[in-house]
Amino acid sequence: MVTLQTVRRDAPWSWLKAGWRDLVRAPMVSIGYGLIFVVTGLAITAGLWSLGMTSWIPVATAGFALVAPAFAIGFYQVSRKLDAGETPRFSHVWLLRPGKITQVALLGVFLIILLLFWVLIAQALYAYFAFGNFRPIGEFSSFALATPRGLTLLAVGTIAGGILAAFAFSISALAFPMLVDQEVDAVTALVASVMAVRAQPFVMLTWAWLIAFWTILGTVAFLLGLAVIFPWLGHASWRAYQDFSPVPSPSRASAAAS
Question: Which residues span the membrane (predicted)?
């Protein structure tokens, strides 16, 4: 069992402000870490483009959104160092105790499973609705935006992706920061995250909407905007975790520490 603090209904806006302050206090480390994922995304995009499979770029971008919470642990580490009055260094983003790495990896596997499930759904929908091979983005856009089957594909795909994204958000919103900060197991951290969503759905729905909005905005800017937005949202997620202040029951905490 986990106990949570009640947060204000407008708390997500405070998390964004606090996250921005963390980003400004450690811009080199935060943006440098964020650039790793931007460069990786650009490399994947370039690879799909060279193979003539540009229609899969939106699928890959949506897939990154599913697993991004696992990669944001570096930003949680930076915010944690700032809270301790220390100067964050790039090496800090990788510093996790072996026991914590195991639990982070376990929770990360859940997100990877969701990612693979999303890819399978995208392939199935494409095979069902698309008669032709619309791999270039121009052909796919004409099909998706100008034909009934294409519009149906977009609608069904958006709904399916939204459901998976909501599930990924529910199990990870507080889980990864909690694993970084406390001696708990992945299941306890996952439960804390789900409890926060169930206890204050309006707050967490607002937070999920803000994350989606800024992520889409950064992606539209040829992924380069994510070099700033991803660190910003990562630091803000740490502040969200702190606001909820999840505390596991003594039995679970002692079991995780043993």
Answer: 31-50, 56-76, 104-131, 151-174, 186-205, 211-233
